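Researcher: Good morning. I'm working through a list of sequences from a screen, and I'd like to move beyond sequence-only analysis. For each chain I'm collecting a predicted structure so we can compare shapes side by side. This is the next one on the list. No need for commentary yet; just the structure.
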Amino acid sequence: MARASSKPDVFQAIADPTRRSLLKLLDERELPVNAISGHYPMSRTAVSKHLRILADAGLVKERKVGRETRYRFDPEPLLELKRWLAYYERFWENRLSALKRYVEEDGEEESGSPPSLTPLAGGQEKEPPNR
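Model: Good morning. Structure tokens for this chain:
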């Protein structure tokens, strides 16, 4: 199914480790692209492309200061990701709770079954003591 828009969404934007690193770098301060690119072993153009993807997803805001553009992190779009993850967290918690109930119920059913033989030294088996 084709997407109506070619703009990257939050999920696509944070899929790349470099972009996640950029968000962390911009978490505490606003920086121009020249200062940002000094933190990475890639060209300024490559850093600008990553910043463009983050800006298109709404995770980075741009502000002109004189001739330079400064970038800052905007966490608001991450709320979509948080809601998505919360759904799956509840999903897995429910699945694990159901598995736990199943295992515990199965264990209760087995406790009424005849005892199994336990191995002795030398390969012989004996029945466990009666309870």
